[in-house]
Amino acid sequence: MDYKVWKSDAEWRDLLGAQEYAVLREAATERAWTGELLDEKREGVYSCRACGAELFRAETKFDSHCGWPSFYAPKEGDAVELIEDRSHGMVRTEVRCATCGSHLGHVFDDAPQTPTGDRFCMNSVSLTFAPDADADADA
């Protein structure tokens, strides 16, 4: 796929920290329960740490008890790209940023408590969070 944002591996390495590069560009996974955005409760927008594209709104975030920030839907239908992942001896659906192709996490259809039934299980290190202006005032 042709992405709106493209950089060489060297440029990504210069832009991202070691863990960010491992997750975003090499599809690693951060350890469960360690991500800085896991317990974020304010209203706002979650964006791709690599390119800044807006990916998820806080109102779709829910506590899935899986150890990673979880959302039931992306911000826009085309904000993320879904790709079959057959690594680690299983079949899963990888979630990538549709703007730059960076690895964000995986999506599972095991969240019947949500409007979509989906659990977009994202790595905190793949995302940045910007609170809504009024959310900062309430914090």
Can you walk me through this structure?
A hairpin with a 5-residue loop joins strand 1 and strand 2. This protein is globular. It has 139 residues and is an alpha+beta fold. The model has no long low-confidence stretch (mean pLDDT 94). The strands form two sheets. Strands 3-4-8-7-6-5 form a six-stranded antiparallel sheet. A three-stranded antiparallel sheet has the order 2-1-9. The chain has a single domain (9-138), classed as Peptide methionine sulfoxide reductase (Metal Binding Protein, Guanine Nucleotide Exchange Factor, Chain A). The chain starts with 8 loop residues before the first helix and ends with a helix. The chain contains three helices and nine strands, in the order H-H-E-E-E-E-E-E-E-E-E-H. It has helices at 9-15, 18-26, 133-138; strands at residues 44-48, 54-57, 61-62, 70-71, 80-85, 92-97, 103-108, 119-122, 127-131.
Q: How much β-strand is present in the residues?
A: 25-35%
Fraction of residues in H or I helices = 10-25%
**Total separate domains:** 1
Shape: globular
List keywords for this structure.
metal ion binding; 6-stranded antiparallel β-sheet; Met_Sox_Rdtase_MsrB; 9 strands; 139 residues; Metal Binding Protein, Guanine Nucleotide Exchange Factor, Chain A; 3-stranded antiparallel β-sheet; single chain; Mss4-like_sf; alpha+beta; peptide-methionine (R)-S-oxide reductase
